[in-house]
Design a protein that fits this description.
It is a single chain. The chain has 242 residues and is an alpha+beta fold. The chain has one domain (2-233). 32% of the residues lie in helices and 29% in strands. The chain has helices at residues 2-23, 60-63, 100-106, 142-161, 165-174, 176-185, 216-219, and strands at residues 25-30, 39-45, 55-59, 74-83, 88-98, 112-115, 118-121, 127-136, 193-201, 231-233. Strands 1, 2, 3, 4, 5, 6, 7, 8, 9 and 10 form a 10-stranded mixed beta sheet that branches. Helix 4 (142-161) crosses helix 6. It is elongated and about 70 Å long.
């Protein structure tokens, strides 16, 4: 008799889990206008409200449909802001990271690594946290490292103040910002490599596509060949990738 009761409980639990899964729906997730509203993939939730606040992360080649295979070390982060009546979850860009193994390769033995953290404000009033990292070919004196760090901060703050958030982010992701930094500090010391290791966008970037959109080669974003897997975390139910 006891065995039958146990079996009944197991059957009830299994049916409940199955019913909960059937109640979930698939939602398409779309990038903001800054990235041409590219489809990021699909995720599931019982109610659309559960998607709001979820964060999604994917590499630049995944976002561009494989067009940027050489920049797989750049991980983009998005957060779901709302879900439309058409069942499409709209996101905003909240920042990026470089993979840890890429950063480790930059600073090999007998090289000086210079890193810092700062806040910049763009021309349209969006605040962004930046964490640049620079690498010299040889070990540098403490005073020179401090001068280089100060110069990088000065250049980044000036550049941000002259650009909208959308322009500044495109410049950062495309690598143009790294070139500007390298050019700006070369009178002090010709650094081997300068990268923005991490960024965090503290406000919503205007959801618009440029009047003259840059080419896919320039933006690193093409229409993906199909829905990409989405790693979703944050508020709401955890969901497996499509």
């Amino acid at each position: 008799m006891a065995e039958k009761e146990t079996t009944g409980k197991k059957t009830t639990v299994a049916r409940t889990v199955k019913d909960k899964w059937r109640a979930k729906q698939w939602y398409k997730v779309r990038a903001p206008g800054l990235f041409q509203h590219a489809e990021l993939g699909e995720t599931v939730a019982t109610e659309p409200e559960q998607l709001v606040g979820r964060t999604l992360e994917m590499t630049l080649p995944e976002l561009s449909g494989g067009a940027d295979a050489g920049r797989a070390h750049i991980k983009m982060r998005f957060r779901v802001e709302r879900v439309g009546g058409d069942g499409v979850a709209e996101t905003r860009f909240i920042g990026h990271d470089l993979t840890s193994d890429y950063v480790r390769r930059l600073a090999r033995r007998k090289r000086s690594k210079i890193d810092t953290s700062l806040h910049v404000t763009t021309k349209d009033g969006i605040e962004i946290v930046l964490k640049p990292v620079a690498v010299g070919e040889q070990r540098l004196q403490t005073r020179l490292r401090a001068e280089l760090r100060h110069k990088m901060v000065e250049i980044l703050q000036t550049e941000a103040s002259q650009k909208t958030a959308a322009e500044f982010v495109r410049e950062m992701i495309q690598g143009e910002l790294s070139k500007i930094l390298a050019h700006g500090v070369r009178t002090l010391y010709p650094l081997k490599k300068i990268e923005i290791r991490r960024s965090e966008v503290l406000g919503a970037i205007a959801d618009e596509i440029p009047t003259h959109p840059p080419t896919p080669e320039a933006t690193g974003v093409e229409g993906p060949s199909g829905p990409a897997p989405v790693a979703a975390t944050g508020e709401g139910d955890e969901a497996p990738a499509a």
